[in-house]
Amino acid sequence: MGGITVYTDEAPIVKNTTGIVVQTKEQVLRDVTSACIHCARCVDACPVNLLPTRIASYSDLGKYEECEHLYAMNCIECGSCAMVCPSKRHLVQLIRYSKLQIQNMCTAEARGGD
């Protein structure tokens, strides 16, 4: 369930790569996402007790400070939330992006606010 999707064979294989799954275009599931129905399945599935849908929504809106307040950095990116989501939202990708933006904010603050 972990890992990232790579759309080209030009991505490097690194030391901590543990496996590769290759699929044809026909094998790839292309679910259409829809709005969150607030079922809380992602919350129940989260092993770290986070609010994945709330973090993802804030990330989608560019509100990364709110993501940080909701402990987005504690996400282990297991994919359980996205797997159980009936709306097929890309929760892990949005949370991963918020984590990157939070790291960028912290780096900018450490440099003195450049």
Main attributes of the structure:
114 residues; mainly alpha
What are the SSEs and their pairings?
Blueprint: H1 41-45, H2 52-60, H3 64-69, H4 80-84, H5 91-110
Helix pairs in contact: 2-5
Model description:
The protein is mainly α. It contains five helices and no strands. It has helices at residues 41-45, 52-60, 64-69, 80-84, 91-110. Helix 2 (52-60) crosses helix 5. The longest helix is centred in the last third of the chain and has 20 residues, at 91-110. The protein starts with 40 loop residues before the first helix and ends with a helix.
Q: What gap, in angstroms, lies between the N and C termini?
A: 37 Å
Query: Please, what is the oligomeric state?
Result: single chain
Number of helices: 5
Low-confidence stretches: none
Rounded to an integer in angstroms, the radius of gyration calculated over CA atoms is: 16 Å
Class by helix and strand content? mainly alpha
Give the CA-based shape: globular
- Sheet with most strands: none
Query: Approximately how much beta-strand content do the residues carry?
Result: under 5%
Helix content: 25-40%
Question: Helices and strands, in N-to-C order?
Answer: HHHHH
- The total of beta strands comes to 0
Mean pLDDT across all amino acids: 88
